[in-house]
Amino acid sequence: xxxxxxxxxxxxxxxxxxxxxxxxxxxxxxxxxxxxxxxxxxxxxxxxxxxxxxxxxxxxxxxxxxxxxxxxxxxxxxxxxxxxxxxxxxxxxxxxxxxxxxxxxxxxxxxxxxxxxxxxxxxxxxxxxxxxxxxxxxxxxxxxxxxxxxxxxxxxxxxxxxxxxxxxxxxxxxxxxxxxxxxxxxxxxxxxx
Length: 193
Ligand SMILES: C[S@@+](CC[C@H](N)C(=O)[O-])C[C@H]1O[C@@H](n2cnc3c(N)ncnc32)[C@H](O)[C@@H]1O
What we know:
- By secondary structure, this protein is an alpha/beta fold.
- The protein is built from 7 helices and 8 strands.
- The protein has helices at residues 9-19, 22-36, 52-59, 71-80, 116-125, 138-142, 154-163, and strands spanning 42-46, 63-68, 85-87, 100-105, 126-136, 166-168, 172-175, 184-192.
- Strands 1, 2, 3, 4, 5, 6, 7 and 8 form an 8-stranded mixed sheet that branches.
């Protein structure tokens, strides 16, 4: 299983919603994703954690399933009792090829060692015409001047998506309400060819 940078999400799970901008942060992210997908979409929230963002997408009329590799994050999501939660690794999704309508990764790609297997596996399961929305350059937005590898750099994610058969659409952004300094986060949007 790929290593998580910075955090042990099993230890973080209990305090995650309270310490990461809570409802304000999750509502802002869900509203931004909502604008980029058709009404009433079916969405796989990859690295969806406690399901906080997924829960707001549900309230906006979407059908959402969370997958996450942390058993404790999945337990928190299940305790919420609103969206289905699957304990699985994003680099080995338990779904057939071309079976998923739309996929999102919110604050996932900046913590991984190598985004390539995450993009390749998402592309495998995504149906032709399905959309993929992901945060990019998360740390640039919230911690400008950081020195870590930009594993979610927009140009890298664009190249990996193109190689995996996804066409880039117009980018988007949203304000991280509930977060210190209210950073402006970038979203990249792709469509499976
Ligand atoms: C920064 S949190 C974001 C959670 C959620 N997307 C949100 O915005 O509230 C990153 C999440 O990705 C999960 N994650 C990390 N590596 C993963 C992997 N290889 N497969 C699935 N989930 C992973 C972590 O367990 C954690 O829940």
